Amino acid sequence: MDLWESWCGKFAKSGFFSPGSKPALSFTTRDTASFIYNADAFWCFEMLIRRTRANFQMEGPTGVMDQLQTLWHILQLTDKEMFSHISRIGAESLHFAFRMLLVLFRRELSFDEALRMWEMMWAADFNASVAETLENDCLEPLVIQLPRQSEAEIGDPKIDDGHRNSTTSEPTSRSSDRMSKSGPLSKSSLLYISSLLPRSGPLPKTGPMSDDNDTEMKSASSSYNFCGLTRSLWSRNERTHVSSVVSSFEKGDDPLPVFCVAAILIMNRHKIMKEARSIDDMIKIFNDKLLAIRVRRCIRTAMKLRKKYIYKNQVIKIKNHTVPDTESNHEPDSGGDSKS
Amino acid sequence: MGSSSGQPEFDYLFKVLLIGDSGVGKSSLLLSFTSNTFDDLSPTIGVDFKVKYLTIGEKKLKLAIWDTAGQERFRTLTSSYYRGAQGIIMVYDVTRRETFTNLSDIWAKEIDLYSTNQDCIKMLVGNKVDKESERAVSKKEGIDFARVYGCLFLECSAKTRVNVEQCFEELVLKILETPSLTAEGSSGGKKNIFKQNPAHTSNASSSYCCSS
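YS: structure for the whole thing
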């Protein structure tokens, strides 16, 4: 019943998480769980956390703090007016944006809007290698080897069609295959997943929601690849060539959410300039949801901002170090997985 | 919200901070105080902020109440909000013993570490007295704690609103009695306590240089 407790039971031993992750979880328990299997909610949540793990790290500077620093730099380079206003009112800590970044706008947006936001953000930054990293990025108890072979993990297009495959061969992790990376939380894809779920498939049966724990989980997991949630979508996308947007992300630049925050600031420029006179006001404006956040516009603006930011950054680098060694040289260390 | 500038519409501005373990009811207490409502709230992320105007005697007061997240992960962030607080309310849940013991083990130390105000008034508040049958911390223990740490003490319920207003009023009265604190909070001139940027100061090894 309680997704959060089940999840903790499995993974929290790593010391990564504390109940702080619960806000992020609320979406799955309260909203999604009503129309999907608990097991699906569980894996959706797990994949979400893999993406945002750095935010919930207990030690060292958390991912969000790093992102706030990036946000500061973004504003400095792309919007002088906003930058100086925030400096002037003493809101340089940018703590008002903390919540947005931690739970990816879930508190600021309605459930449907938040899903849209996530889906758009992740789709915009879809990257095969990142997807693969996430897929393999299991916490301890999750590292499970497929008995057959790890080719599957590379996402061979042949096994893309998980469900067709599954009916003929022995039951594999087909239900989880359908959990897409770029939009594991979209309503439509979730419905899709649940409607296709085999009634006695591996997930519902052995899923972490079942009362009996570890033993059953382990025995089942030895034969099913639970990490393969993304395989099918991932390989599908590989075939259809990932858009060029990805390239900026690949180079290690900052992911979209932080640019979305910058976009929200800029889109609400008038209100912020007029009403925010201290960090108190900023926190109030953000926490009390007084801002207009239009998802599509926000994403569009964020992507433009990122382009601008990358460009300005390069200009600065060129200025500072007369000959910068071109950032974007690709290290062909493991040729296997890089897209041709 | 942005008040009309010029003449401040209050005599004193006091900064009050709410701290304590996750789930003890800090946000509920604040909501109960500022808007007379009680709701099932999601856990606070980072910090939240509410304003309440009070008139005590002849004095018009503006209370800026900072509600902090109780979870440990937010400690580094919330610690910067102790600065300049004239009042700190330590909240525990009378039905959960560990929230009480953590006050001495953790929260009192946090105050020593981060509070910049020597004379800052501290107050101990035991919340959720509406769940009398589940009580795990007696009133006497609360009183003893308060005596040891030299703070005010009250038990309240954000749900039934018992003693909620008294919590804040007692604290404010005590602040008003302390000359060094009223001197700071007077005239409504907001002092900027967030001048430096924690995100920057905490990370000196940043590859960026943000001086402009």
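YS: worth flagging: Residues 97-114 of chain B form the longest helix (18 residues).
IM: good catch. Also Residues 188-212 of chain B have pLDDT under 50 and may be disordered.
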